């Protein structure tokens, strides 16, 4: 069973937009490249030369979006081409490249947890903060082996027609089946799931880690029969769209798509669970230290707002807020009006415990 990442789900969203004519021809070609049907972006076979930097993300419209948001500004200022490889920078792929001495990527778009795991194993280099300006990202977003390039959230999405127009007050209401009858959906992949359960049980964000897994299971067990566990972002969206569930713990980008389809399918930012994606640099990257100049450039607010508008991925540079419209802020996890009793999911915790907690969670929900 393969875990779907947020980035992979972003690709699925882009693929749907291709089918429905919502993407340009140029974006369509980029998506084909990610599937290996064109050599334009050279997925899986891109090699950095002195005149280029190769970054790897999860494909689809994100190829074009990264090129526009991050690549074009850096090329304009430096003259160095940025090539985007949509092959997907899984931790396994990075390990294999480094161990084989055949590294083809200069920077990878993974999570903060991936950065910590790979750094501990010696597969990525520390971020050079003599080049990368820490002040361009928010608090806690500049780690030893990764620096946050965008953020996203798990939110409580709900069907207002099934809640009598009432707005659920965070995860406590998510588990109040008397107040809000009907089935729920949660993700099968554990990050951001037990946190929601524990917040509903009264645990404050500042007391969340280390997770009290036994307490979370005790809170969750009576409701298992009423919860459908989704495996992909598309499935989470479908469950709400078709009325199979009243509420769901889903990615905010999926919730936004639902609301565009049907204003009654919406979400609350209260108790949102915030994640950071991150740039990492594989050990032995072909472009060497030059990649840190690219990473520093990618943290400028203008490009990050471009990415928000293209993909829904939120800026990590606090200065980006001043460049946003009210429409932008409405889908931005870190907009001040959206930060009510929130939790920043701990990459450090999951770097140490993800496999163990994930396996326990799968065993528990399979009872």
UniProtKB/TrEMBL annotation:
Highest taxon above the source species: Bacteria
InterPro entries: SBP, TAT_signal
Keyword set, alphabetical order: Signal
Tagged with keyword Signal: yes
CDD domains: PBP2_polyamine_RpCGA009 (cd13589)
SUPFAM superfamilies, A to Z: Periplasmic binding protein-like II
PANTHER family, alphabetized: ABC TRANSPORTER SUBSTRATE-BINDING PROTEIN, SPERMIDINE/PUTRESCINE-BINDING PERIPLASMIC PROTEIN
Record protein name field: Extracellular solute-binding protein
């Amino acid at each position: 069973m393969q875990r779907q990442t947020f980035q992979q789900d972003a690709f699925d969203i882009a693929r749907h937009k291709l089918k429905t004519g919502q993407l340009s021809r140029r974006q369509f070609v980029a998506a084909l490249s990610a599937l290996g049907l064109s050599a334009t972006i050279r997925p899986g076979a891109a090699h950095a030369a002195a005149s280029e930097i190769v970054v790897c993300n999860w494909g689809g419209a994100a190829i074009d979006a990264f090129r526009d948001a991050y690549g074009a500004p850096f090329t304009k200022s430096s003259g160095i081409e940025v090539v985007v490889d949509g092959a997907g920078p899984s931790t396994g792929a990075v390990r294999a490249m480094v161990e084989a001495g055949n590294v083809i990527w200069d920077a990878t778009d993974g999570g903060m947890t991936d950065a910590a795991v790979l750094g501990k194993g010696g597969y990525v280099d520390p971020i050079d903060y003599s080049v990368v300006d820490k002040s361009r990202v928010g608090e806690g977003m500049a780690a030893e082996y990764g620096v946050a390039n965008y953020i996203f959230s798990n939110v409580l999405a709900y069907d207002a027609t099934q809640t009598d127009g009432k707005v659920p007050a965070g995860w406590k209401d998510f588990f109040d089946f008397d107040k809000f009858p009907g089935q729920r959906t949660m993700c099968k992949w554990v990050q951001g799931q037990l946190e929601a359960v524990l917040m509903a049980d009264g645990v404050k964000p500042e007391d969340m880690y280390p997770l009290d897994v036994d307490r979370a299971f005790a809170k969750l067990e009576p409701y298992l029969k009423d919860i459908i566990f989704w495996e992909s972002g598309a499935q989470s969206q479908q469950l709400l769209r078709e009325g199979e569930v009243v509420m769901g713990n889903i990615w905010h980008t999926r919730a936004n798509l639902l609301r565009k389809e049907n204003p009654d399918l919406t979400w609350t930012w209260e108790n949102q669970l915030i994640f950071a994606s991150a740039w990492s640099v594989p050990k032995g990257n072909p472009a060497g230290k030059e990649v840190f100049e690219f990473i520093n450039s990618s943290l400028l607010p203008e490009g990050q707002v471009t990415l928000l508008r293209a993909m829904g991925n939120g800026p990590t540079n606090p200065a980006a807020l001043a460049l946003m419209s009210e429409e932008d802020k409405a889908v931005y996890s870190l907009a001040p009006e959206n930060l009510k009793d929130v939790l920043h999911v701990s990459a450090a915790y999951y770097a140490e415990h993800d496999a163990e907690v994930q396996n326990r969670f799968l065993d528990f929900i399979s009872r």
